[in-house]
Amino acid sequence: MIKAVIFDMDGTLVDTERLGIKAWKAGAAELGFAIDDALIHQFIGRTLPDVMDILDGHYGSCETAEAIYRRHKEIRDEMVKTDLELKAGAAECLDELLAAGYHVGLATSSRHVTAERNLKTVGLFDKFETVTCGEDVAHGKPDPEMYLLACERAGFAPEECAVVEDSRNGCVSGIAAGCHVFAVPDIVPLPQDVADGCEAVLDTLFDLPAAVKAVC
């Protein structure tokens, strides 16, 4: 029986991925570099060190990777102030799960300062009873470490926890940790083998509470 529900943030609760794509492209262009969707899609669900490794490998220069990241972050931080939106059903889903007595946690590859800022902007941060962020783990998603730590902090075994994710990397992390994974895909469709490993693939978060309750 599921006792805790642990949410990813980016692309799952808040629509940051689309803002991120715009910011990466604008930041790279300002510095005279091209960056395509395929490269940006590799960043989804990854911790900052992983993203920097991908950028460094692509451009062959730490300096270029750091410059593009810094400018993208400046642009993205400004966009978040005015353009950040909740994913459909996010607030209603959290409220319904909390009212039903589930522990609600957060497990995001973003850093704590970013997660707190984003979720306070949309009024969700105080709903989470436990928070696990990118700097809390040595190995980011798709490694299971983040969800294993999130389960430990929630006080439940992985088999008692549901993971809610939008990306391949996040779903693989939750599956490898031994949790029940519910996917709500965002920008990039899930590979079929990953979808097959999930408890359910849902259209929106409005569908989540009933799907969680149906697991015995």
- Say how many strands there are: 6
CATH class of the largest domain: Alpha Beta
Q: Number of helix segments? A: 10
Strand content: 5-15%
Written as H for each helix and E for each strand, in order along the chain, the element string is EHHHHHEHEHEHEHEH
Low-confidence stretches: none
Keywords:
Rossmann fold; 49% helix; 216 residues; 2 domains; alpha/beta; 6-stranded parallel beta sheet; 10 helices
How would you sum up this structure in a few lines?
With 216 residues, the protein is α/β, with parallel strands linked by helices. 49% of the residues lie in helices and 11% in strands.
Give a verbal description of the structure.
This protein folds into two domains: 4-15 and 85-213, Rossmann fold, CATH 3.40.50.1000; 16-83. Helices cover 49% and strands 11% of the residues. It contains ten helices and six strands; from the N terminus they run βαααααβαβαβαβαβα. It has a six-stranded parallel beta sheet. Helix 1 packs across helix 4 (62-83) and helix 3 (48-59) packs across helix 4. It is globular. It starts with a strand and ends with a helix.
Strand and helix map with partners:
Blueprint: E1 4-7, H1 16-30, H2 37-41, H3 48-59, H4 62-83, H5 90-99, E2 103-107, H6 112-121, E3 130-132, H7 145-154, E4 161-165, H8 168-177, E5 180-183, H9 192-197, E6 200-201, H10 208-213
Parallel strand pairs: 1-2, 1-4, 2-3, 4-5, 5-6
Helix pairs in contact: 1-4, 3-4
